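User: Can you fold this complex?
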Amino acid sequence: MGLNLYILIWVCIIGLCLGSFFNVVILRSLSNESIVFPPSKCPKCNHKLFWWHNIPVISYIMLKGKCYFCQEKISIQYPIIEIITMILYGLTFVKFGISFKTIFAVIIVSCFIIMTTTDIREKLVDCNIAIGLGITALIYNYFAGGINGIISSILGLIVGTLILEVIARLGYLFTKSRAMGEADSYVAGAIGACFGLQNIIPILLYSLIASMIFILPVFFYNKFKAGDKLTCIAAILFTLSVVIYNSLVQNYFTFGFLTFTGMLLAYFITRSIKKEENAHYLPFVPALSIGVLYFIAMYF
Ligand SMILES: [Zn+2]
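Assistant: Here's the predicted assembly.
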């Protein structure tokens, strides 16, 4: 067996175990408990778990997804996070090999796994994780050097934070509050510190595209469930007109249809955002993670 394969297997096992730890971090950061104490227990019946209840993925399968004591269902989040962490760690090692870059990329990936999960579940992101990642990135770029090194890293941090902060404050033009959470600005700053000034804008653009593909459908699904049919109809009409204009007929009529449905959609979205009292912003950290992962995979 080759040495690299041997190391890869270890990297995957470490990924599984750390994924299991991230589940604890996620749970505790949502419930504001300390990370180490209390010891692992069932959140429903509070029974202390046996050691073999804590084996990543395997325990979940052996217990058939239920608590050993009270039969309460265990969240599918646990094995999913463990497997995702394992896969991403493995891929990172395959891409960068034995290097400091692997360690740095693994740290980035880990932070985004935790922040994305808490953002999806509760629209809550621990800013300390983003700040910690930012500081780690500055240190890494200081020692890694490269073309711009630490200067590019600092400028990336400033520009990343500013861009999202400006977008968030634009929300005040339409509603009485920010368009995005404060955490998004911290996260964008951390991304800037990781990848430098020259990469922060492309990564934000990838994230924007990702949010259109993955997050907007969820947004419209929630609108549909909330009974806001007009926004959904406008979204469908707009999508249709884009498809028609792009791949079927390009003339003044289809262009007019595209413009009209686009304006209609913008009107309904603005109107429905104005109506909502709270939690009106989309969770943007998942989109940022997709942007970051894409950048790491393609250009880092
Ligand atoms: Zn239980």
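The pocket of zinc ion is lined by residues 42, 44-45, 47, 67, 69-70, 72 (CB under 6 Å). Residues 1-98 form one domain.
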